[in-house]
Specification:
The protein has 101 residues and is α+β, with helices and mostly antiparallel strands. It has one domain. It has helices at residues 15-22, 27-33, 35-41, 89-98; strands at 43-50, 53-60, 63-71, 77-86. The chain has a 4-stranded antiparallel beta sheet with strand order 1-2-3-4. Strand 3 and strand 4 (77-86) form a beta hairpin.
Length: 101
């Protein structure tokens, strides 16, 4: 009997479309070059931390992420200050709430 795990935030994951668009040969390079944007676009919750810092929780490449980002006055991401990845939502939520991103 096989078990499948349904991740509630999988619809936020743009990775399948990116893989189709760019191909397996270069997808890692594309993501590395634009990591802050992909993390920001994957967010489903955010918290203002002051000084234009925002902590986010998101879902990308079949994993949860918690990150601290620097944004500009129009709330566009400018830098990724810290990024952690998690296999489980509960771990990511704890890091998001406790400052682990």
């Amino acid at each position: 009997m096989s078990h499948s795990i349904l991740y509630p935030h999988a619809e936020f994951d743009r990775f399948p479309q990116l893989l189709e668009e760019f191909g397996a040969a270069i997808i890692d390079a594309v993501i590395a070059a634009e990591e802050a944007d992909f993390a920001w676009d994957s967010r489903f919750a955010e918290r203002d931390m002051g000084s234009r810092r925002v902590r986010i929780i998101g879902y990308f490449r079949c994993r949860y992420l918690v990150a601290t980002c620097l944004v500009d006055g129009q709330r566009r991401v400018r830098a990724l200050l810290k990024l952690r990845r998690f296999d489980h939502l509960a771990e990511a939520e704890a890091a998001f709430l406790d400052g682990g991103g």
